[in-house]
Write a structure and sequence with these properties.
lyase; heme binding; transmembrane helix; four-stranded antiparallel beta sheet; single chain; alpha+beta; cell membrane; cytochrome c-type biogenesis
């Protein structure tokens, strides 16, 4: 009965989304206040109904209701409770229900916190948001219904994919969806502004918090996925340039560009057309990511579905929304003339360069991701585009971005001077040079990757600190603590990017790897550490069988840790997984993987010493915290300046 309530609530949410899509739009076009105002209760009702539907599916998983086909295929009575709950979105149908729940959440938030928006713009934003929801409700109800019943319910289920039975993967999809779907608000604001014929500083102030929230969640989601791949898959890497990894990275790059271009619209009334285009493309790439994950066109460990019919449906959604938005953009963009005039050497010019680098980098990743599909479709050739291509094609743009970011951030608006802008950064330049010389001296083989990458990271961190100091002037600490939160958030986020640069560069350059057959009680050395395989035992887990090793680690005769790498077998799905054992440290990780037993009685063991590995995720956390600090700035939360919108409006016709 609970499942039927959930199904009925989902159908009602679909109906409400259709109402919200049509009636407020007509009201905005005809100037009918009551029709426009009805968008707000409709958005709240849509979220409530979708929440009921999602709660009903969660109850089915928690109570192991195997009469539901979805629960039978993705759960088991022996599964720990955490993974019974996360099994709700550990599959295609449930994850799509989570998708529309988050979509409805953003719509409800826009309805609740949009008091400063002009009624017509608010109605159109909520109407566009509802149209996206209607498309995905239809997709779920007609192709991916999570509430289908089995005629003869079995006593137990098939279990969840063992790779997904992990805390990292439990929280990775919700954060990723909050980012993916959050960009729908930027899209809705862009399309509503095109319909309204008005893009101005107030519009940029309204759209920035939604974009910032989406970018922040996307940062956390990508970081969680990278961290999961690092410790769960047992291959020792943090990024593989997998197509599904790229699918989340491309909208992240475009959202970062959108955040920076919106600043120019807000401060200087320039880059209006470009900012609208970025808002459309950022969400468009989120839909492309959805298509890649769920169409089956690309095989990946992250993929949810392998159903071409569903892929065609999502492709149709992508074509309709992005195609319609771009058509409207083509009709309106020419009328959105820029007011602000600026020199190429200015903060506006630096932000334009920032946008070009991020957008071209996203395009490079897109080409590398989609090219194998193009080659197979047109020439029937199977190609593989791997890490070497992405590293060589993508990295130069990030190097240039890191070089110009501190200079651009300190540059004055409208017209600047490079020599004058670099003056406050002289101390940062000297310290960066000293760090690079030190790394060159201590680096084995004088690694260029370590010197350049870590140097750029230090430059970003010191540049962010120098900018804060420069903004205080002669006021010192009293002025520093009174700086707007947005300034602090920017400094923390840019520093986080620098910390990630340092982690990636030093891990890539200084990692030590050892693969061998280890005998019981035989010691061997890896990167200055002594490792001894003490035992390998069979261990019974809650819903798996484990082959668990015990490996002692010491340095200079002093014990460091005893690590327990595992190989697990999940009997229900007969699927093995590798559980790496990691001794985390601030400056290094000791990373061990146990393999199969060998003919001579030994065991295959892979050992890594990974310097500065955790700095990669520390930097990501700092970037997300920086976004959160900026989001807490009152100017962005209340969309200050909204009442001036009509005076500053730029008519499109």
């Amino acid at each position: 009965m609970i499942a039927e309530i959930g199904h009925f609530a989902l159908i009602l949410a679909f109906a409400v989304s259709l109402y919200q899509m049509v009636i407020p739009m007509i009201g905005a076009a005809r100037g009918l206040p009551a029709w426009m105002d009805s968008a707000r209760p409709a958005a709240l009702a849509q979220f409530g109904l979708t929440g009921i539907s999602f709660a009903a599916l969660t109850v089915a998983f928690v109570t192991s209701d195997f009469s539901l086909k979805l629960v039978y295929e993705n759960s088991h009575t022996d599964k720990p409770m955490l993974y019974k709950v996360t099994g709700v979105w550990g599959n295609h149908e449930g994850s799509m229900l989570l998708w529309v729940l988050i979509l409805a959440l953003f719509g409800a938030a826009a309805a609740a916190f949009s008091g400063n928006l002009p009624p017509s713009l608010r109605a159109r934003v909520l109407g566009v948001q509802a149209s996206i929801g209607a498309a995905f409700y239809a997709f779920i109800i007609f192709t991916s219904n999570p509430f289908l019943r089995l005629a003869n319910p079995p006593f137990n289920g098939r279990d969840l994919n063992p790779l997904l039975q992990d805390p990292g993967l439990a929280f990775h999809p919700p954060f990723l969806y909050l980012g993916y779907v959050g960009l729908s608000m930027s899209f809705s604001f862009a399309v509503a502004a095109l319909i309204e014929g008005r893009v101005d500083a107030a519009w940029a102030r309204w759209v920035r918090p939604w974009t910032l929230a989406a970018w922040m969640f996307l940062t956390v989601g990508i970081a969680l996925g990278s961290w999961w791949a690092y410790y769960e898959l047992g291959w020792g890497g943090f990024w593989f340039w997998d197509p599904v990894e790229n699918a989340s990275f491309m909208p992240w790059l475009l959202a970062a560009a959108l955040l920076h271009s919106a600043i120019v619209v807000e401060k200087r009334e320039a880059l209006k057309s470009w900012t609208i285009l970025l808002a459309i493309m950022a969400f468009g790439f989120s839909l492309i990511g959805t298509f890649i994950v769920r169409s089956g066109v690309i095989t990946s460990v992250h993929s949810f579905a392998n159903d071409p019919e569903r892929g065609v449906f999502i492709l149709a959604i992508l074509a309709v929304f992005v195609g319609a938005a771009l058509t409207l953009y083509a009709a309106r963009a020419g009328a959105m003339t820029a007011k602000g005039v600026f020199s190429p050497v200015s903060r506006e010019g630096a932000l334009v360069l920032n946008n070009i680098l991020l957008a071209v980098a996203a395009f490079v990743v897109f080409i590398g991701t989609i090219w194998p599909l193009v080659a197979e479709f047109f020439w029937d050739r199977k190609l593989s585009v791997g890490a070497p291509f992405f590293n060589q094609a993508f990295t130069p743009f990030m190097i240039v971005l890191a070089v110009v970011l501190p200079v651009g951030a300190i540059m004055p608006w409208k017209r600047g001077d490079i020599a004058r802008a670099i003056r406050p950064l002289r101390g940062a330049l000297v310290l960066t040079g000293a760090v690079m010389l030190l790394i060159w001296a201590v680096s084995t083989g004088h690694s260029a990757i370590a010197v350049i990458g870590a140097g750029l990271g230090v430059w970003l961190v010191l540049g962010a600190a120098s900018e804060l100091i420069h903004r205080t002037g002669r006021s010192g600490l009293s002025r520093l603590v009174r700086l707007p939160r947005a300034d602090w958030g920017k400094a923390v986020a840019h520093s986080g990017l620098g910390i990630t640069f340092i982690g990636v560069a030093l891990l890539t350059a200084w990692q030590v790897e050892d693969i061998r057959v280890a005998q019981i009680d035989e010691a061997y050395d890896v990167g200055g550490y002594s490792l001894t395989l003490r035992s390998v035992d069979e261990v019974q887990g809650p819903n798996y069988l484990s082959t668990m090793a015990a490996i002692d680690v010491s340095k200079d005769g002093e014990p460091v840790a005893t690590l327990h790498p595992e190989k697990r077998i999940y009997p229900v799905q007969a699927m093995p997984t590798t559980e790496a054992a990691i001794d985390n440290g601030v400056f290094r990780d000791i990373y061990l993987v146990i393999g199969d037993r060998q003919a001579d009685g030994g065991w295959a063991v892979r050992s890594y010493i990974k310097p500065f590995a955790n700095w990669i995720w520390l930097g990501c956390i700092m970037m997300a915290i920086g976004g959160l600090i900026s989001l807490s700035d009152r100017r962005y939360r209340v969309a200050a300046g909204a009442r001036k919108a009509p005076a500053n409006a730029v008519p499109a016709e």
